[in-house]
Automatic annotation (TrEMBL):
Name assigned to this protein: FeoA family protein
InterPro entries linked: Fe-transptr_FeoA-like (IPR007167), FeoA (IPR052713), FeoA_core_dom (IPR038157), Transcriptional_repressor_C (IPR008988)
Source superkingdom: Bacteria
Domain Ferrous iron transporter FeoA-like: from-to ranges: 16-97
Region (Disordered) location: 1-26
SUPFAM superfamilies named in the record: C-terminal domain of transcriptional repressors
Entry keyword annotation includes Cell membrane: no
Pfam families: FeoA
UniProt keyword terms in alphabetical order: Iron
Molecular-function GO term, any one: transition metal ion binding
């Protein structure tokens, strides 16, 4: 997705990184990818791994649980699958959250 399209979607609703979500928050993935220019190879590898796990644009997502120490790791439902992620990894996944979350 182009930066301008992502910016429009962010303005259209409550879009924030998955790492900022709380248990019970639900939404739809709007973008997967690193927001920084640092560590481009690592960012590409992380993006590829997340896409392979089903973190794709349009997938429904819900934060199910967070770890007791620092809220890490988090457990999420992506469509019909459950996955555990570190918040650092979840920071590159932008989600449009439902109203009230």
């Amino acid at each position: 997705m182009h930066d301008s399209a992502l910016a429009e979607q962010m303005q259209a609703g409550d879009v924030r990184p998955l790492s900022k979500a709380h248990p019970g928050d639900r939404g739809v993935i709007v973008h997967v990818g690193d927001h920084s220019a640092h560590g481009a190879l690592q960012a590409e590898e992380l993006e590829r791994r997340l896409l392979e796990l089903g973190f794709v644009e349009g997938a429904e997502i819900e934060l199910l649980h967070e770890g007791m120490i620092g809220g890490d790791p988090i457990a999420v439902r992506v469509d019909d699958m459950r996955v555990a992620l570190r918040r650092k990894e979840a920071a590159v996944i932008d989600v449009r959250f439902e109203s009230g979350n």
